[in-house]
Amino acid sequence: MTEQDQELEAQRKRAEEARTELGETMGELAARADVKHRAQEKAHEKAEEIKEKAGELKEKAGELKGRAVEVTPDPALKAAEQVRKRPGPVAGGAAALAAAILVGRQVLRRRRAAKAPKGVGRLFRKR
User: Fold this and answer.
1) Does a structural domain hold residue 121?
2) What's the mean pLDDT in 1-13?
3) Structural contact between residues 124 and 116, judged by C-beta atoms closer than 8 angstroms
4) What is the C-alpha to C-alpha distance for residues 66 and 104, in angstroms, rounded to an integer?
5) Residues 106, 2: Cα–Cα separation, whole Å
6) Domain total in the chain
7) How far is CA 59 from CA 45, 50, 56, 70, 106, in A?
8) pLDDT value of residue 45
């Protein structure tokens, strides 16, 4: 081979290396430019992380529930079961308590308004 042939062969090798490197660079740039695909991958990764965390939390909740049942006194468990069976009386009691609180507030407001000096009663009333 002559010197020219050797130089030509070296240039061809350099050109081939440059093409290969350019192809790799273009592939990397294309991957970076594909924002939609990258966002989907990131969303998929986050979804997997959330699923794992949810599984861990479910396990922990089960453990805590078991411990809570163990330490809860028997009468409290029986009362909770009765409430689940017949929620009506408990709801009625809660409604009666709420009504008593509202009536009590109205009575207190009227008493305060009656004690206020004449002419300024409106200033001391709460609305």
Assistant:
1) yes
2) 86
3) yes
4) 41
5) 112
6) 1
7) 22, 14, 5, 17, 49
8) 94
* Domain that residue 91 falls in: 87-127
Q: Is residue 36 part of a domain?
A: no
Q: Encoding tokens for residue 38?
A: 């990258």
pLDDT tens-digit readout, 58-103: 999 999 988 887 777 778 778 888 888 888 888 888 899 999 999 9
Place of tokens 């989907």: 40
In a domain? residue 125 = yes
Both tokens assigned to 110: 């009227």
Tokens of 112: 């305060």
Sequence letter at residue 30: A
Tokens of 49: 């992380």
pLDDT tens string 23-36: 899 888 887 777 88
- Tell whether 107 is covered by a domain: yes
Token pair belonging to 123: 């200033």
